[in-house]
Design a protein that fits this description.
Blueprint: H1 5-17, E1 25-27, H2 32-45, E2 49-51, H3 68-71, E3 74-76, H4 80-94
Parallel strand pairs: 1-2, 2-3
Protein name: Ionotropic glutamate receptor L-glutamate and glycine-binding domain-containing protein
């Protein structure tokens, strides 16, 4: 994977030169260097950002120790690939299910969850 920082910085520089800075950044990177670059970039420049990266609260290293003010404009929301396994887990706990089959195909990203989905239940 290559670092996307030069591309991000270049586009940001263009927007400033054109007197059209971003008001909001929608981060759809899931993991890796690109995702870390976007988090560091938005944090350093104070750009309001909504991130749909994988992870629970505190999992985004770059945003782990945010001040109260920064938590007001740097927001993490669960992408479907994180939300759906959490819903499955909650239903199993709530209904006290002891035997379950979870079917999914290759179009659904589940690689990072399947081993721990039903752990400690």
């Amino acid at each position: 994977s290559h670092c996307s920082c030069p591309k991000v910085c270049s586009k940001y520089g263009e927007s400033l030169s054109n007197n059209r800075p971003p008001h909001l950044l929608l981060d759809t990177t899931l993991t890796g260097v690109s995702s870390e670059t976007v988090k560091s970039f938005s944090l350093a420049l104070g750009i309001p950002t909504v991130s749909a990266s994988f992870g629970q609260e505190g999992d985004l290293r770059q945003w782990r120790d945010l001040t109260t003010a920064k938590r007001g404009y740097l927001l993490q929301v669960m992408p479907p690939a994180d939300m759906i396994p959490q819903v499955i887990r909650s239903i199993i706990i709530y209904m006290n299910i002891t035997n379950a089959a979870i079917l999914y195909d290759s179009t659904f990203v589940m690689d990072h969850k399947y081993k721990a989905l039903l752990q400690n239940i």
